[in-house]
Design goal:
The protein has six helices and no strands. The protein is mainly α and 199 residues long. The chain has one domain: CDP-alcohol phosphotransferase transmembrane (TM) domain (Four Helix Bundle (Hemerythrin (Met), subunit A), Up-down Bundle), CATH 1.20.120.
Length: 199
């Protein structure tokens, strides 16, 4: 298996480990260790996301596998992170569904374009969404580390919600905006005619 493929698949492994460690940290006698391991797993997820495309181009190993599974691995890994936050009670179900439905829509869009012999070009909103989601993941985990080392510094709730809620709320808003951008930017794809308009 070539390096870019290994990096892509690694995200699907690291993300569930992150969620498990993060959720279990609330029940552990040594939460700091699990939280630091969670940070390590999240860092590996983001590093693999940054490097798989780089190595694919550098080593001239761009493949159909990468084109298909790289965005899928991105979606699965970040959804798994937010699922961990949902299970931990940090975010509500509706917020998680924004991430889920946006990714399902974009996956469907890619399949539709594939059927028409077209390619969905990466949009600025998608890249920005990915950055904000990564920040949200580190932000939530970091808050719990600060709370462990400096008890009382992080309030239990802010206007009735855990502080981490607001990190993810910002990510959810950008994700919803990305959904609208992809929808309107590619609305020609859903027509009956094969219009080769730029995505």
């Amino acid at each position: 298996m070539i390096i870019p493929q290994m990096l892509t698949l690694s995200r699907i492994i690291f993300a569930p480990v992150f969620s498990y460690l993060f959720i279990y940290s609330f029940k552990s006698e040594n939460p700091a260790l699990l939280l630091w391991l969670s940070v390590a797993m999240l860092t590996l997820v983001e590093i693999s996301d940054a490097l798989d495309g780089f190595f694919a181009r550098k080593l001239k190993q761009v493949s159909d596998f990468g084109k298909l599974f790289d965005p899928m691995a991105d979606s699965l890994s970040r959804l798994t992170v937010f699922l961990g936050f949902l299970v931990a009670g940090i975010i509500p179900l509706w917020m998680f569904l924004i991430f889920l439905y946006r990714d399902i829509f974009v996956s469907g869009l890619r399949m539709r374009c594939l059927m028409k012999g077209m390619v969905v070009s990466a949009r600025v909103s998608g890249k920005l969404k990915a950055i904000i989601q990564a920040i949200a993941g580190f932000g939530v985990t970091g808050l719990h580390l600060v709370d462990y080392y400096q008890p009382g510094m992080v309030p239990e709730t802010i206007t009735g919600n855990p502080p981490g809620y607001y990190f993810v709320l910002v990510a959810a808003i950008f994700t919803a905006g990305s959904f609208l951008d992809y929808y309107y930017g590619n609305r020609h794809v859903w027509g009956d005619k094969d219009e080769h308009t730029s995505a």
